[in-house]
């Protein structure tokens, strides 16, 4: 059922890129990304808070 699509090259416009290898966009992206150490610290903090909440819940459950 699928037929190949015919393209008329005469009606195709080429859009020029500012930087052929997209390096400028990648630099901006990488500058906005958080580093591995920051992400690991956030994960560790989240786990610590969760463990403290679990401990408080367990302790309060024992007192009842």
UniProtKB/TrEMBL annotation:
Protein name in UniProt: Uncharacterized protein
Organism: Leersia perrieri
């Amino acid at each position: 059922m699928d037929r190949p699509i015919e393209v008329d090259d005469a009606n195709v416009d080429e859009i020029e890129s500012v930087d052929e290898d997209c390096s400028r966009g990648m630099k901006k992206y990488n500058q906005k990304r958080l580093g591995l150490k920051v992400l690991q610290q956030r994960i560790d903090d989240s786990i610590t808070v969760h463990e403290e909440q679990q401990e408080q819940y367990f302790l309060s459950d024992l007192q009842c």
